[in-house]
Specification:
Length: 179
């Protein structure tokens, strides 16, 4: 399975890097491919290292203005002309999406992927990996949107909230019929 992971390229502390590394190793050991923003820095590097060292493949989609940070040695690397094309390529190359900790770029990617799914422009499973409670506030906001009628489809049809990598991968494999 090709698993797109949206996440930060920032250098983060152990409460985020350790679970990210563990999830990456599960991807690699499961024989899956990581589809990610292609960066060889920060948390993106941690995840790419973990997948590659555990036997998984790497498919990166970088963007022109970040090309200098693209990971050497990826199995495939595509350079998109802009962020919109990058997001489209990441989605096109994946079978499932995981949203890990990140900043405004990750939040932008997450909301676009969910908006596309809401309008049935893709049917891929989407997991929000809530490492160390990072997305507790966003999870609460999504639930409020659902409860107050702002979502035309049930929240459970849009996204699965996982507290750890084991739960995230189990949901994806079950959704894809791998288990």
């Amino acid at each position: 399975m090709n698993i797109c992971v949206f996440l930060s390229a920032a250098d983060l502390d152990e409460r985020y890097t350790r679970p990210a590394r563990e999830f990456a190793e599960l991807i690699g050991k499961g024989g899956h491919t990581l589809v990610w923003g292609g960066s060889d820095s920060g948390l993106m590097k941690v995840v790419a290292d973990g997948v590659q060292e555990s036997g998984g493949r790497l498919v990166g989609v970088s963007v022109d203005f970040l090309g200098e940070f693209a990971r050497p040695g990826a199995d495939e690397m595509v350079i998109a002309k802009d962020l919109a094309e990058r997001k489209a390529l990441l989605l096109a190359k994946s079978d499932a999406v995981v949203i890990m900790v990140g900043g405004t770029g990750t939040l932008d990617e997450a909301t676009e992927i969910l908006e596309l799914k809401k309008h049935a422009l893709h049917t891929k499973p989407v997991v929000l990996l809530n490492t160390a409670g990072f997305y507790d506030g966003l999870k609460q906001q999504f639930r409020r949107m659902d409860e107050e009628g702002f979502l035309p489809v049930p929240l459970t049809d849009l996204v699965f909230f996982a507290e750890d990598g084991v739960g995230a991968l189990a949901y994806l494999e079950e959704s894809a019929g791998v288990r």
